[in-house]
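Sequence design from tokenized structure. All designs in this work follow the same two-part layout: the structure record, then the generated sequence. An example of the structure record is given first.
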């Protein structure tokens, strides 16, 4: 039977979203790859599945599948689309919801201007929590990539991120070096590779090679990770605008031990139905 879906995007990072609350949705890695294919499927960076919660205190469970079919812990742009979706589908009347993810609870909030803010949780820096192979926690690490040393920051925003500062985001080797960093042996669960250009203390430009998806037009957790990395290195203020290829996100962070807040758009593109059994 055809299953309803919604195509959405957050600053160009695009999603196919399914309501698994009203009906059970069975997704395999092969089906997800076909759904994400821009020629043979609907096309998206990630497939999002809304389900009933299993954790105490949560309103919904949020599952995220990258275009390669793998399930991941967190997606910030998807979280904003998630809260817009459950409101539009009348699955909740709340403006702020508690959402269960593989990385723990997050709290997206629908704003009066139509944007969505998300409490993305507290960043984690200990290498074992990323995970990242390193003897001790450092602000900046040396990472050998293709025979040369690269200075990087490493942290988790519920999913693993590595951030390096570049003089020009447009010229950064995102699709060559980024692919190598994603599968670097020091990251046992692979990693999202961010390339940050610091414009001034309140503005950065960012490109991200996402684990399992390649370069996307925007990466919410990547924006948060970049801002945190810049703050840790003394380069940024506590509120920053992050300009990505698909739009701008606003990120704020009061400092270590505090949660990161991200605000940005969540747009519905179209709705339709698809027969999952034929994928």
């Amino acid at each position: 039977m055809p299953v309803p879906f919604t195509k959405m995007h957050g600053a160009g990072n695009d999603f196919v979203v399914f309501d698994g609350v009203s009906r059970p949705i069975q997704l395999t890695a092969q089906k997800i790859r076909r759904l994400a294919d821009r020629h043979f499927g609907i096309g998206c960076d990630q497939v999002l599945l809304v389900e009933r919660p299993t954790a105490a205190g949560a309103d919904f469970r949020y599952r995220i599948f990258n275009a390669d079919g793998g399930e991941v812990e967190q997606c910030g742009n998807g979280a904003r689309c998630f809260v817009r979706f459950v409101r539009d589908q009348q699955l909740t009347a709340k403006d702020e919801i508690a959402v269960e993810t593989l990385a723990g609870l997050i709290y997206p909030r629908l704003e009066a201007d139509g944007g969505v803010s998300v409490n993305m949780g507290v960043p984690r820096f200990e290498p074992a929590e990323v995970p990242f192979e390193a003897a001790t926690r450092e602000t900046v690490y040396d990472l050998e990539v293709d025979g040369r040393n690269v200075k990087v920051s490493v942290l988790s925003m519920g999913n693993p991120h590595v951030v390096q500062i570049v003089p020009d985001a447009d010229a950064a080797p995102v699709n060559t070096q980024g692919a190598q960093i994603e599968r670097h042996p020091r990251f046992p669960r692979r990693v999202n590779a961010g390339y940050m250009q610091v414009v001034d203390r309140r503005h950065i430009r960012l490109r991200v090679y996402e684990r399992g998806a390649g370069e996307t037009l925007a990466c919410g957790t990547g924006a948060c990770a970049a801002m945190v990395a810049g703050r840790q290195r003394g380069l940024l203020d506590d509120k920053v605008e992050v300009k990505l290829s698909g739009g701008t996100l606003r990120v704020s962070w009061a400092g270590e031990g505090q949660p990161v807040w991200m605000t940005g758009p969540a747009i519905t593109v179209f709705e339709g139905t698809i027969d999952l059994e034929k994928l």
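The chain has a mean pLDDT of 96. We note this feature because it recurs in several other targets discussed in the main text.
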